[in-house]
């Protein structure tokens, strides 16, 4: 272009250059590499290329834009505006021609690779770049004197109009090609899947004429106890519906190793569990589509994250090797396969599934997904990321190195194996405070904003009332019991005499703490038993030991910040977690909840092919630590059993609440907890 | 290598070069690019690399080979010889080391890319290069301190030991990986599929330790009337079993257009026909495996050739567009897909299918396969290739250009629509001679070597006796009737009075020729009716018109040679075909039968990936002629109706038998047929 040609500057990218007068804004964007969406390829149909010319003097850019910098509104734009309405100041980029110097604002919704906004500043930013997208093509009509197939002419159109390499089509899609082309007057919208830029494209679906979309994907996180899925818009990255269900494999064993044992001891046991989990995935996807009120055919992608045992069972692989050293995975790499192969029948039959890579025999795709979401490898400070579940995934790292391990915490944190435990649902106690003086509890339940000692609580919780304790509730109540001097450092619940509280009631040969008694109204009697404390001690010791093992490997005695992930991590109280000794000691403001980071990682992989590449690279780089054969893990585990364990006091927690130094075996001392010099 | 290093010459390739002393023969072959097979990768297990050193003086090669040119028999060879036996003079190429100059004979069975011997000299030679092959790999054991999946370590082994790119594995194969590796002591044989050299490999199956094979493929030719399949050894190219069945779609319509009509008129009709043909394919494959007594799991490849309507129906595509101009194909390119997608469930579940490309809307993959088999594009002289079936595929060409068309001959040539017609099976009349003087017939039936007038015929054909007339029989009897003066040039059968033969019997308002009457013994009465003659006239006119149309396009009035293809082409009598006016006139010794050339083409594509590339290139180059919209086709068709048609006499045929010039409408003239000046 010559110096006399109009200068065009795209904002917010700042991409600039000169183009021949009469060039459309869309052409200019493509030439200059500015991000401007288009599904119809410049036919004035899709309006995805809407832009707003900025008029006036822009000294920063060195240009003055006159009102006639773009060609006048043309008939195509007028028709579009009449029919569907253009916002004031907006133009269709494929119609408006550049006549003189101009600054073009590309609004977020017109950016193909628009950024998905993440809440946490330190979390990874994501640019939309899904593996499947919609494109409109104008296909040449058949000519019997130069015969070629409709697919071949469609591929010619994809090549010339979109630069897409020859695509294959599954037979059922191929079967719909001819009717769609004829119904659409040789114009069709196709869903093109390219696993990565440059990989062989596949046509997943086809619609006559212009089809606006959007397409959807489901991001699935298969946990040992719960399976969560998010229906995500593949254009905007927005979550349109979320759902979670219990993993039906629970009937074969509550934790991973009991499921591996089930597979080892029962011929066909692994296959039974495969059928169970695939059925649940299908139900979840079906339910999400129904909840969002969308045609299930529009769900064309799925991503799956899970721990290695869930991974193998979902893929139909016997997990027996994961039950014994050297914990060999059948495959550790990412997988790109037909979603139908995973039993997903309720979505588009040609949908593709991407299964995130595994890190090691005990460190799964869920940990890889957490790393993808939380980006420890970009962190300046040392971050400990703990994904709490039946199996905890633990990551420790910064820019220099990232370590990972998993720890078998068991299902106690999810409310299982707890006498009054239940999953997080309305009626479950999720917050507990115990008055250190009176030892009286107050609590909140899910579904009610009032504390139990506030007026109107009984009416607010309704007839269903208080039903049990969920994971965050059990952590709080145990920590509060410890802080109120009801439990000693070894985890023993004191008797009414020892504690001076009538709420400490005998239960068998041990004591229990009476949290709530509604038996008079025919409701439940909710206690925290000695067994509950033991279950929580085991779980928290495992979690803590895993974190400490990574800190040993990193040769550090402290971390800079902690991210609590997992559905449960979102609800956990950091100070109570620290009081329990679940996590190492850091300033409270350095503990952040990341929600379901594994699920977020799955969503990121759904929205972005570059994220898939990134997670594949990351898992190769992450240093794997195998807790199961590491003697130090056992040492840390045993040492972490106490409340708090003696080797690692909690200086930050001291500011929150003093820990009484009681011992209900010997009856020795009370008062502020001992501090190391 | 220095000049002092041993010189090694591989025969028959002539590949030669110097190698360091101590180099194994297998290594030398790989270095010098000589073709030497190996499945075990040089571990002394598979014996596929057997060679025979030639000892003595070879002035032609300029070397003298001493008895100690190779290292002595080693322990691995001795063990192999003891266990399985080595032929005298043979060595294992992976064990024998080259110590001094040597000439190495590579026997055919040790050549990986050995040539498949074809009977006809002008047919294409084929070098074995199937898409799926067996390789033995030694896989590294898992290390929990450097965790990686078994598949990833298998891929490492494939890369380092065989130079194979990272392979994917379908989930059911992946599920068998871990047990196979452990059972095989980390040695497994895998069936690796690479659609083309350089395309993404897939592991189709896995066996613990060394698995000798061979693997098999099925080459399928789906005709409108019959479906034929050949079970082929993918190492040697040998056919191990062949079978043919009626196409069950016949119940929906005898010819292609009636099936297209069925699809158009009946909702779900196309799907019904898809189910029918897929079921037949599956039955055929199952039967072939049983006949050959092999594990169906060993069948890992399939190739499919068929005409466009059969192609679309087999793929599950409604063929409605093929019923009307412009006869648009849904896809014309080759397809590489899971064989299971075509309903092939009786073979390896991971088997792949290659569907040959189509030439045009009416010229199918069967014609492409005939071109692959008969190689007209390499012919010095002008060859006309006619694949006779319900739809005839016709190719005309030489090195310079190749034209193709198809012609709707209908099922008469396959014995259908003929009053006493039947498919070629024991009891069917396949050869007929009529004495020109007495007008008495004699014939032969399939399954009996005697002519009907020879002693012992009745006993030889057995109680089932003579059951009907097959395609080659009907052509012969009609031609013989014409040559015996029983039928006039217009195709009219004369009465007993007109012909002087009591075998010409009235049947309704026309006459019939009594070929065989076994009613006295409770057997059938076999006649050739006027309707039969008309059916054959229509069929042969269509065939001839197609050939003439291509000759017009090529601007030639004669061809140099004719190849008759099709299962039926193998049995047809060239002089009778010419007498009927089915094919243009050439010297009789220039007519060759190529048997089921389409099936042969399918077998070639099964054995050779380069043949797949070739057929893909060829179909692009072949010039397509659409008979359905070509007015000259109709002209030729009408002109070709006569027996013989007036415009094109048969000079070569005159040497065989004079054609009487009778006309049963006017009763005019007899004697030698008219010759053009």
Describe the structure.
Two copies of one chain form a homodimer. The longest helix of chain A has 25 residues, at 530-554. A six-stranded mixed sheet of chain A has the order 15-14-13-16-18-17, sandwiched between helices. Chain A has a six-stranded mixed sheet with strand order 29-28-19-20-21-30, sandwiched between helices. In chain A, strand 22 and strand 23 (441-445) form a beta hairpin. Chain A has 677 residues and is α+β, with helices and mostly antiparallel strands. Helix content of chain A is 27%, strand content 22%.
What's the short story on this structure?
The structure is a homodimer of 677-residue chains. The first copy, chain A, has 677 residues and is of the alpha+beta class.
User: Major sheet of chain A: order of its strands?
Assistant: 15-14-13-16-18-17
Radius of gyration of chain A: 29 Å
Q: Mean of the pLDDT scores of chain A?
A: 89
Which descriptor suits the 3D outline of chain A?
elongated
What is the tally of helical segments of chain A? 16
Query: Low-confidence parts of chain A lasting 5 or more residues at pLDDT below 50?
Result: 645-651, 667-677
Helix content of chain A: 25-40%
Oligomer: homodimer
Largest interface: A-B, 47 and 47 residues
Structural class of chain A: alpha+beta
Give a count of the beta strands of chain A, DSSP E runs of length 2 or more: 30
Give the biggest sheet of chain A: 6 strands, mixed
- Separation of the first and last Cα atoms of chain A: 74 Å
Strand content of chain A: 15-25%
């Amino acid at each position: 272009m010559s110096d006399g040609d109009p200068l065009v500057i795209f904002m917010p990218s700042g991409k600039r250059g000169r183009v021949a007068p009469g060039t459309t804004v869309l052409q200019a964007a493509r030439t200059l590499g500015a991000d401007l969406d288009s599904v119809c390829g410049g036919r004035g149909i899709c309006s995805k290329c809407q832009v707003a010319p900025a008029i006036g003097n822009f000294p920063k850019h060195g240009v003055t834009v006159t009102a006639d910098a773009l060609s006048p509104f043309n008939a195509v734009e007028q028709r579009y505006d009449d029919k569907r309405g253009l916002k004031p100041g907006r133009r269709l980029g494929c119609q408006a021609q550049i006549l003189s110097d101009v600054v073009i604002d590309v609004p977020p919704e017109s950016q193909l690779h628009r950024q998905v906004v993440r809440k946490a500043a330190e979390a990874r930013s994501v640019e939309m770049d899904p593996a499947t997208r919609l494109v409109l093509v104008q296909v040449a009509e058949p000519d019997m004197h130069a015969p070629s197939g409709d697919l071949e002419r469609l591929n010619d159109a994809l090549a010339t109009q979109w630069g897409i390499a020859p695509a294959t089509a599954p037979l059922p899609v191929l079967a719909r090609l001819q009717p769609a082309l004829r119904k659409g007057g040789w114009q069709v919208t196709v869903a093109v899947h390219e696993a990565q830029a440059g990989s062989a494209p596949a046509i997943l679906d086809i619609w006559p004429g212009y089809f606006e979309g959007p397409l959807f994907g489901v991001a699935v996180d298969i946990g040992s106890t719960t399976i969560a899925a998010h229906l995500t818009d593949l254009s905007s990255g927005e979550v349109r519906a979320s759902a979670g269900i219990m993993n039906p494999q629970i009937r074969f064993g509550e934790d991973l190793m009991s499921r591996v044992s089930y597979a080892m001891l029962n011929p066909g046991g692994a296959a039974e569990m495969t059928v169970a989990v695939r059925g649940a995935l299908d139900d979840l996807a079906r339910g999400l589509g129904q909840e969002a009120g969308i045609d299930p055919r529009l769900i064309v992608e799925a991503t799956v994250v899970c721990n290695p045992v869930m991974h193998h069972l979902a893929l139909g692989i016997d997990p027996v090797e994961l039950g014994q050293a050297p914990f060999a995975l059948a495959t550790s790499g990412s997988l790109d396969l037909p979603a139908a192969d995973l039993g997903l029948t309720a979505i588009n039959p040609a949908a593709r599934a991407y299964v995130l890579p595994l890190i090691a025999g005990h460190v799964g795709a869920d940990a890889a997904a957490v790393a993808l979401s939380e980006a420890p490898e970009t962190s300046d400070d040392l971050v400990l990321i703990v994904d709490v579940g039946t199996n905890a995934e633990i990551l420790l790292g910064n820019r220099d190195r990232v370590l990972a391990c998993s720890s078998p915490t068991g299902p106690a944190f999810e409310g299982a194996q707890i006498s009054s435990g239940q999953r997080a649902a309305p009626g479950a106690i999720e917050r507990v405070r115990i008055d250190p003086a009176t030892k009286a509890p107050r609590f909140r339940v899910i579904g009610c904003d009032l504390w139990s000692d506030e007026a109107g609580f009984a009416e607010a919780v309704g007839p269903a009332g208080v039903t049990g304790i969920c994971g965050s509730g059990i952590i709080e109540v145990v920590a509060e019991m410890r802080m109120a001097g009801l439990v000693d450092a070894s985890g023993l619940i004191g008797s009414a005499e020892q504690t001076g509280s009538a709420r400490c009631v005998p239960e068998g040969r041990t004591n229990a703490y009476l949290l709530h008694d509604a038996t008079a109204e025919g409701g439940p009697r909710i206690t925290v038993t000695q067994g509950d404390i033991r279950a929580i001690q085991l779980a928290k010791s495992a979690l803590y030991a895993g974190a400490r093992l990574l800190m040993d490997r990193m040769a550090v005695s402290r971390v800079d910040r902690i991210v609590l992930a997992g559905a449960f991590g979102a609800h956990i109280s950091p100070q109570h977690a620290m009081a329990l000794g679940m996590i190492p000691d850091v300033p409270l403001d350095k503990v952040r909840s990341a929600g379901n980071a594994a699920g977020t990682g799955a969503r990121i992989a759904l929205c972005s092919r570059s994220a898939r590449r990134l997670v594949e690279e990351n898992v190769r780089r992450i240093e794997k630590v195998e807790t199961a054969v590491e003697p130090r893990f056992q040492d840390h585990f045993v040492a972490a059993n106490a409340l708090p364990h003696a080797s690692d006091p909690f200086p930050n927690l001291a500011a929150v609440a003093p820990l009484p130094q009681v011992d209900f075996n010997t009856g020795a001392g009370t008062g502020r907890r001992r501090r190391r010099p």
